[in-house]
Protein 1
Amino acid sequence: MMGGDFAPLEAVKGLQLYLESVSGTATVFCIGRETEVQPLLQQFNIPQERIKMVHAEEVIGYHEHPTKALKEKQQSSISIGFHLLSTGKIDAFISAGNTGAMLVGTMFTIKVVEGILRPSIATIIPKLNGGTGLLLDVGLNADCKPEQLNQFAVLGSLYAKNILNIENPRVCLLNVGEEEGKGNILAQATYPLLKENTHINFAGNIEGRDLIKDNYDVIVCDGFTGNVILKLAESIYDIAVARELQNDKYFHRFHYENYGGTPVLGVSKPVIIGHGISNDKAFKNMIELAEKMIASNFCDKIKGNF
Amino acid sequence: MMGGDFAPLEAVKGLQLYLESVSGTATVFCIGRETEVQPLLQQFNIPQERIKMVHAEEVIGYHEHPTKALKEKQQSSISIGFHLLSTGKIDAFISAGNTGAMLVGTMFTIKVVEGILRPSIATIIPKLNGGTGLLLDVGLNADCKPEQLNQFAVLGSLYAKNILNIENPRVCLLNVGEEEGKGNILAQATYPLLKENTHINFAGNIEGRDLIKDNYDVIVCDGFTGNVILKLAESIYDIAVARELQNDKYFHRFHYENYGGTPVLGVSKPVIIGHGISNDKAFKNMIELAEKMIASNFCDKIKGNF
């Protein structure tokens, strides 16, 4: 409850939206400072039977060093959340707090699925035709080896299938040309691995101009390029706002605040990391995503593929 | 005259636009098949005294292998153009033809400026405030060393100053975070070089979301990332067309067909490579850019900095 620029207000409002909109039976553990959270839960009429308040005295700030903060603030909402997740008291953990602390906590408490070199984070790309593309890695791995990109392809494919409900997702390699043999050393070495990977439906190279088109479902790239693209895509919404087009049906889909968070792909339990600027809708979406990941046994499906 | 999807028509129309709009005294050498070009020159009333028709029997197609084509088609308009440029008969060479052949021709005929590891190509980024940013490399060097990025910074800075008329251009490093020490291995190793480079006004790291903002003038990155960004930026215009916003003042600036071509930076004479889809306006702009590069002694200024 303590993560995000508008914590805990937006988290509580998001919880209200979630509880109003679904018939699901999930119990939501609200981890945070009871004196700050409890009055808001009452103010927004959150039914007591649907939630469980878990007091956490400490809060990890945005500018704290992740490893140091997690070590020193064991009573922080992030530390307690990971403890509850690792001991099986909760099935998924969501936070819009310190991203570094969320990642470090994930790696050290929840563990990477055996066989996976490095976990990854992905982003949604709004396609012009109304569909949705998935791009990964978007920042967890600035330098990548071909074998990692090959694994991201499987992780992205599983996510597209199980969470985005895309049948037989087309996986593409981000590149500077369509033909095999194009690209930097990484792309050139990754192409043959993807081509021979029987766990995915490889659809070849894809260029920057194709991100908004419907000739792919999943794109893999290194986390440096992916992060630049993610932030550039976010700025498309900034352009829309500047041109007073934020209500345009398509541009509105670049408003990433609405999407909620990104799951850490390749770890043994669902962890979802939200934007600092997460609003109520983002929190609602993150809870729904967590529910979907649990219901589809997503993490177990990953284990079965590595 | 034979390069571009609509050759030689758009080239002739562009020439007409140029001759109508400027008081410059440039003589434009029109290199191409006389039987195809001459009737168009007459049809569009191109004054004979402002041009010089140079017959070239052969044409290098878009899908020909650059090195092979240049070797075998010595009577092609591209081969003849490079010959005229290298022998000093013309001062700049422009073509919207086979990009590979243009690059190979540049490297082997015109030569790289001594001290420069690799030339580069740049693109214009339209900023929200009406200003213009410069991004390089956008595809000539898929894999880069820190020393190359450091040289691109100088090339971009000189271009911004002499051609875009930006005083003391702020040069930034494309990265995944603002703080020093962020990024992939390349960015981490490039930062200290840029910081110590006295030929540029280094303004630190910059992220994908800042491309449309006014906190930089020149951005350097490897040619893989730059090419992906260039093509993604081009697709912003595709979005505008799909949303029927192509006449919006800002989105219109992403219509890269209008810009003309990209100069090859770091070579000893002006070479400008156009898009295959170049229209008349693009050809006009390319001629004006060539004029500006000649008038400002741009290539000599590069020589003085390396």
Note: The mean pLDDT of chain B is 95.
Protein 2
Amino acid sequence: MTKSDNLTHFDLFSPTDFRYSVRDLLPYLSEEGYVKYKSRVEAALAMQLSRAGICDKSVAKEISRACQQISAKEVYAEELRIKHDIRALANVIRRRVSDKAKPYVHLTATSYDIVDTANAMRFKDAMKSVVLPDLIRLERALIRISRLHTKTVQVGRTHGQHAEPVTFGFFLSYYVSRLGKRILKINDAVNGLAGKFAGAVGVYGPLSLVVSDPQRFESELLGTLGLGACEVSTQIVQPEAVTDLMHSIVSAFGVLANLSRDLRHLQRTEIDEVSEEFTLKQVGSSTMPQKRNPISFENLESLWKKFMPQMVTIYMDQISEHQRDLTNSSSQRYLPELIVAFDYCVRRLSKTIWDEDRRRPRLVVNSVQMKRNLESSMDQMAAEPLYVLLAFAGHPDAHEYVRQVVQRSIKSGSSFRKIVASDPQLKKYYDKIGNELRFVENPVLYVGIASKKTETVAKNWERILSNLR
Amino acid sequence: MTKSDNLTHFDLFSPTDFRYSVRDLLPYLSEEGYVKYKSRVEAALAMQLSRAGICDKSVAKEISRACQQISAKEVYAEELRIKHDIRALANVIRRRVSDKAKPYVHLTATSYDIVDTANAMRFKDAMKSVVLPDLIRLERALIRISRLHTKTVQVGRTHGQHAEPVTFGFFLSYYVSRLGKRILKINDAVNGLAGKFAGAVGVYGPLSLVVSDPQRFESELLGTLGLGACEVSTQIVQPEAVTDLMHSIVSAFGVLANLSRDLRHLQRTEIDEVSEEFTLKQVGSSTMPQKRNPISFENLESLWKKFMPQMVTIYMDQISEHQRDLTNSSSQRYLPELIVAFDYCVRRLSKTIWDEDRRRPRLVVNSVQMKRNLESSMDQMAAEPLYVLLAFAGHPDAHEYVRQVVQRSIKSGSSFRKIVASDPQLKKYYDKIGNELRFVENPVLYVGIASKKTETVAKNWERILSNLR
Amino acid sequence: MTKSDNLTHFDLFSPTDFRYSVRDLLPYLSEEGYVKYKSRVEAALAMQLSRAGICDKSVAKEISRACQQISAKEVYAEELRIKHDIRALANVIRRRVSDKAKPYVHLTATSYDIVDTANAMRFKDAMKSVVLPDLIRLERALIRISRLHTKTVQVGRTHGQHAEPVTFGFFLSYYVSRLGKRILKINDAVNGLAGKFAGAVGVYGPLSLVVSDPQRFESELLGTLGLGACEVSTQIVQPEAVTDLMHSIVSAFGVLANLSRDLRHLQRTEIDEVSEEFTLKQVGSSTMPQKRNPISFENLESLWKKFMPQMVTIYMDQISEHQRDLTNSSSQRYLPELIVAFDYCVRRLSKTIWDEDRRRPRLVVNSVQMKRNLESSMDQMAAEPLYVLLAFAGHPDAHEYVRQVVQRSIKSGSSFRKIVASDPQLKKYYDKIGNELRFVENPVLYVGIASKKTETVAKNWERILSNLR
Amino acid sequence: MTKSDNLTHFDLFSPTDFRYSVRDLLPYLSEEGYVKYKSRVEAALAMQLSRAGICDKSVAKEISRACQQISAKEVYAEELRIKHDIRALANVIRRRVSDKAKPYVHLTATSYDIVDTANAMRFKDAMKSVVLPDLIRLERALIRISRLHTKTVQVGRTHGQHAEPVTFGFFLSYYVSRLGKRILKINDAVNGLAGKFAGAVGVYGPLSLVVSDPQRFESELLGTLGLGACEVSTQIVQPEAVTDLMHSIVSAFGVLANLSRDLRHLQRTEIDEVSEEFTLKQVGSSTMPQKRNPISFENLESLWKKFMPQMVTIYMDQISEHQRDLTNSSSQRYLPELIVAFDYCVRRLSKTIWDEDRRRPRLVVNSVQMKRNLESSMDQMAAEPLYVLLAFAGHPDAHEYVRQVVQRSIKSGSSFRKIVASDPQLKKYYDKIGNELRFVENPVLYVGIASKKTETVAKNWERILSNLR
């Protein structure tokens, strides 16, 4: 532990603190915030001891007041002396209360009754108060932009190759749906967080000495903190609740990384369909003044690469020997960083695509270029509708026929649509096909139900988000 | 692709096929099984085309019959020729049907309509038919053994150190609860698997040409296969459903690895509380005939180490560019292996701890040694109940008092309980404490509500499992 | 273990065996090959026992002959009976020899003397005989193609944006250098593999009973197998040698994945600078006959995603408790798969870019399109050389000046080069700059020493490869 | 970026900054240190420009002086304005120099010429000045302790089961060897770090405009900074050098984690062979005053679990598209954290096992208990030497014979050594075996060459370390 008072943000190693920080999360996820939450659990314990008739209400209130005054600084100073973080906290609280109250501080608790409960609380609060609202804001921005582009045609790309037309709104609605579902998953995982008050090995030893129904004591205590109790604990709560929460976050991070990857490639010079806004004072490159780089999309993908593999740590932390070993302790102290980095990315992506003040997109969408790109491949794009319509009209080998004509068209450089239009053998099928031939003649029309789907998806998620609890 | 007909299990590279294989999963997860599932989707498509009035019912039946005859071998032979796996399948089906039926084979489908739907089906079937039943069997075995040891005292260990008493049944009930919850998680994830029939870029282009309501066509088709439709697809279904399934499996794997780690350490020579059964013909070591090694527990932990990091691949596969790139294709072909290895471990652990035929534990539990280990630390174990009872009785500094006596007891080698029993300053507190002093005198009693909890948990999960759907 | 004799490649779960297999690696890395290698170690042990005077030479020869006849099938059958793989091997050898020879089979050896030594041997042989030659072939193909395009101009891209000119040969020489260095790294790691013959806990217990210098016995024995001895072993060799080997492979895999990623994106419809060859019978898509997909590049990146995270397993396997636990055993059985998948990718990439038979590239390079892409950005690309030349000529604020002109040029749509050419304030600098202004007027020239570097790198690696041992 | 001036260590998210920090690494790896290193590269560039005759020496000195005064704070303030970190640095330097010098600041450089070179330098300095010396101190402590216990017998354990005797010194010498080799690996990797000065796409565009031999310019410049040049760069140096460095660190971390795991388990209550020192004021548990927990060993394993998976990020960062994308930028900013956490662990482990001031072990080794544990299994431990000696004496089926006697001994509870001593059939072999029978009678002697090996290894590494450069 290195603790000086003349610290600046540049005397640090971790970029999460000086570069990718989210100030709004400090009350929950900083070390100071952590100590505050642990103090709140100690206070709640005192109140519950009084409720259970073990100490006077006045004693409980005295302890509770003391708990509100604790700072991380003094707890760390005490830990340095006695080398135990939670006993240090208890000592610091005890110093602030009367002799009468002293015995009731931390009474019946084991360290991890405090630690695991405080973590569940602060993760829950951080998610409910900051991260989920940020995610919902991002989702709403995506919905709005998708609606603006319900009919903006764009070429669909598979394998990086032009495939068939979509709309830019439809492209986004795929992310609206994926991100929406992840928001629900995160919300469920947050609601699954639980605390514990079951003692050093999970059998409620100390509580059994002083109350008749230890499980009721536990659930009442946790209830005042807004948490449920873990069905069975050892010294620690079952690790799966936190594992599920982190999975929900990491898999949501993956959705954002995919969106960033897509937007980043759509900003390629040759494609040029979208771009990040670029301010006048901004420098694109230290030596190539003309550059416009997708730095926010790149940043997000980079932070995803950094934090996604932390799931391996989290899976490894599922294993704790017997009634627990401590090998999950230091590693778990890094869980807040993952939440901060994720939220930083959510906010940065929001800001990159949407101007909240002016309620309009900040993402630059070049719909003229989208159309141009689409049209550059339009001739060959007629192949699929033609093949389906021919088969539908009874052609016995439509796919193979079309495949060969495409090859010929490529080889000869002549238009696919011209070749097939003039093929006398197709005449009888064309007659059957009738009006639907327009999709072959003008494949830009061939967007299926893209627009309708975009609208359906937008409505669905607006409804779900407005009911989210 | 290497395909010879004179193959033995020893001409292989992957242990999943010759060493950790589960024969019961072959119909779902082998390559042959995969081709069968893809054929079933092609058949269902033909039937739906007929239902939608696009082809005759007789045509659909003809195709359907052909689909049932397809073998992996002929599909691979065709793929070798044309280098496309799904078009190869379509060609092979087409060869088997009349000219009248040919145009309707695969009509309106894109490859991944078939692939993603077939994967959802076979993963679902494998999980519902084999893996979940195996898990439930294991969970039931754990419940039964936990009940046999509701009152078998054992020392609780934290940091590898003797802490406070638990019961062996309670120890197991922690796993009953954790595994139970994972079973529900897996079941939910399986139910979340979805198929798709939305064409090459997700906008239902081909279907739009031939039916008026493509989404209805899709949901009817998938309904006949027992699946729902993905809300929005690109060429592929949203990757999160499979990601969640694999997370549920990998996190369940972690629970089993933790149990194996615990049992493995309880088998240490010095601890000797449990052991794997050892048959008479078995060889413990090639040169140390006396060895009894926890090889099944070790094996499980080793396979967990092998397969857990595959989650990284799965998270990376959430990213697919634009309407999809193919960089998730080869990697996804390895998903079945993860399921097989997990199921192998579930079965092996089941067999190691429970004899299904004789309906009794196969895990050797040495309750005499458990008691002996517990008793070896009993003197100092009185410290916690004494501290709590003293504090409860009004001692102003009970924890510090007890801490110092323990230090003294260790230093002097004299009994902690003797020192505290004879300390005159404690007299007045002892009077207040009264009968509860028995926990100090005989800490074996200090198991809290371990037995009751074991029974509650057992009942809870028996009830849940019997309702599982 | 599932062992039937009527096995086909489609009754398997792992794609490494039916789809991404490398037949040439079977003798080393299949289970049959593994048993053969273990038998060779047993044979070498017998020979060394005779060399040390412990048994007759005839006995050693008898054992050695027996070892050559062992098949995996019979070893597995015996293992099924006695549940120990190496004792099973010893039993099977013993059955084949006279009573006189029986005692000397496996004498003084512990299982992992055989296992770890056999693994070191077969990994070494597989790498030296197959993988390294394959890598060298790939490296030579890259060198050749780089030389063909020493002067083929291409736009350099940073952040997906056009930056400054390079040549396609230079682009490849970056990979020649990276892959070359990885080949050396792999070669070093292979040479670092070691065996052991130090008994069950590493102190040469059994050997100490029968020879005076057990370390000499060990190094002579291993010497006959082409291996050195590990400095200190426990039951197992130190894990770092294999860890380093796998790191060298995985990091080489990363280089190939990067090259594939690049080539894949260069094949995008809008960029169209390279493409995989496409045969006439090949089907691009099951419904979009016009598609030309970069499937080999995608395949490689996908297999990299699958196998790279196995490094996590390998790092976890560095930890083995005390003189070893078995939790690295099952996981290590999967190491061969990683080597096979890597080699499959090396071969596939080689074949995709180079036609060995006709000794010419198979990768289609569209140098016309490369030039076209470069020229599309040429106007703004003049910015950097201008800025540097202006600064060089004494302009006090060249970067800022150029940055502002670029902004103006973008806003107004007028040519950057025209604006700067007509700016009277630059006149005096232009006079100083003189002839070098050609880089501003025609930035295609601005390729620095790209061509020279390409040639230097090519020569360097040809030389190194030809000396590789 | 959040930058306040009233920051304390508790307003942070990352434990690397407030809990696991290493103050001695701040000059290299903090953000302030990073800015200092980048300034040094800018200064070196100015000096090289003067050496190449491009600017006056006085100009170079002016820039160099300015570079020494730069603080992170002002660079970040400028970055906030123009959104580009390196151009911000250049601007801040420019502000400090005369108009005459301004044009030469950053001239010919691209951002990553500065960034990658600065990173190579500071990683090298941090490793050479702090981490490697710390590692060598730890290695020396291990050597010393191993020597103190050359003959301290301990039971060797495989699978957690007593196997055969070793010595505690031998146990440690396995780690001396493993860690020693990792130190060499790290040292090699550090020496492999390289810088670059090749411009925005690697072809030395800007330098080509102003010097005749850009590669010489680069290697001279880097030479003044103690670095070599990367053979071919794009915008960035080849990623493999850093990948190798991080692999060497992470694999060394694994060795320390294994040692910690071992020592942690040897501290188990039932085993009790070693323990961490425990100070008088230290609190073992918040409610169980008797606990002595292996918290430093647990801490180390936990931090290993946290940081090891970062290798996945590092492998992913090998991929950068074309001449580079920025998706490795944010992730690379976290590399220092990995080095800090590793060094924190090296120091903590050193301090836990060795008292540098008093030059004696701080690790508590309980050799009495080691002997006791060994002796508890001694009877069965006679099995292996007996089997080997019998076989050596010509017994045709010694292993099977011994295996059966062991089974009988276990079943009947009678002594293995007694049964075999009284078996008349063994008489003739015993006569042949002679004096060597002492290993059967007293298997404590059966430590092979443990002591000699310990000494050899100690000497070897003392020699190597003293020559390390």
Note: The radius of gyration of chain D is 30 Å.
